[in-house]
Amino acid sequence: MKISARNQLKGKVVEVVKGATTAHVRIDIGGSIVTASITNQAVDELGLEVGKDAYAVVKASDVMVAVD
């Protein structure tokens, strides 16, 4: 598969928590955790489970930065 997004972060799934319709998928990217909210159907179709390799793909037009 090829994709146009350039921000592709490879990691391992460390947690999948399904809700009523939406799941939270946590991916360990070299010690940092990225969390994605996706549909339960997408989790099933992708075969996501703990220990499986996966990519966090970030496609955004804006990045916000904040400090205290």
TrEMBL record:
Signal peptide: none annotated. Pfam families: TOBE. NCBIfam families: Mop. GO terms for biological process: molybdate ion transport. It comes from Devosia riboflavina. Residues 2-67 form the Mop domain. The lineage of its organism: Bacteria, Pseudomonadati, Pseudomonadota, Alphaproteobacteria, Hyphomicrobiales. This is Transporter. Keywords: Molybdenum.
